[in-house]
Amino acid sequence: MFRSFASAFVGAPSAAAKFLLVVCVLVCGASTAAEAQDADRTIAIVNLSSAPTAAASATRARDIVVKTPGLRATVAGDLAQTLEGPLPSGGPDEPVLARASSALEESEHAFGEFKSRLATSKLLEARRELFSLAPTAQTTALLADVSFRMALIHLRAENMGLAIGEFQLLHRLDPERTVDSFRYPPSIVKAFESARKRVPTAIAATLQISATYNGDTIYVDGKAVGQAPLILPITAGTHIVAIAAPKYQATARAIDVDAGDVLDIKLDLQPRSPITRARELRFQALQQGLSEESLRVAAARVSRLVGSDAVLIIVGDASQATLYIPELDKLSYQSEVDPQLARMLALTLPVPRPTLLDGVLTPPPELPWYRNPVAIAAAGATTAMAAFLIFGGASIGSDGAAPTRLGDSIWDF
To answer: Is-above-0.85 flag for pTM?
Structure first.
């Protein structure tokens, strides 16, 4: 931009054109400075209090931020609810587990109404949800439940081969699982036990597993078996291969292995969603204890996650709040979550850097114009320019003759 201005300035045909070019640049700079001063500063709100009223306090804090001139809440929607709302009681994976459990219940209800297609759809939905979580005892048990209910659907359709395959997968996931003979008919109990006896035990195939990043943990049927890349001898049948790594979304897939197969398996990892990361950092902060250092670390992570100018943290008994400033990497004093919070926000946030035109754009309001040095200088310059123009213009003849030397000097100085 400076090079373009310099070229235009040197190439201007006269001093008048150069003068107008300088004026235009000053006006543009003034406009840019004004816009910079008027830009709202963004605030992210995070609830790090376990008090029952913490979510309500976060809502009040958001209202204060929204109503304060010059401030704006950074996030909205589901991400805001994840940062500000009540925490799930079961941990960061609780929402996914709840969706999977709900799909299982809906499948059971549909199965009881002989809606096999709907029941199958709900089981596949539950399996997809569970595949997005790192394998644990809980997720593995739920996957075994999915296989059991899928086998029941195949038995009703008189597809014994698929039913045995699902039962065998269940036994790989949960070898200690039994079936209640008082609840289920003898045909189901017999198929369940038959599948247990027919689970292959001899190595019959090989998996060549690679991943997005080397060193990530590989799981087969819920058990950690090594790190990527991995060459793994395996039995024939259906298996669930999964991969998990910190800061990334776990992924899994079901594979059918036949004797003699050599299968190349590529597992891609994707970064976790902002909502998942926000939920995890809240749990981690609460588990580490709400010391000043843990609050600072949590607030810094929130700031990087949402890109805010500051992070407002609800702490303690949910009636207090503290502010984190990324530029300073420090926490402010704590304040009550009430209208006085706006004063803390205004005092703590960094102000925009001053520009050369700040004195013209925002003169001190307590000084009248005749006592403001900038205003006096501007008035004097305007008066001098007006005098030059008036006297220079008067020297031009009314018959259209060339101007006098005084008129020439105005434009050629």
So the answer is: no
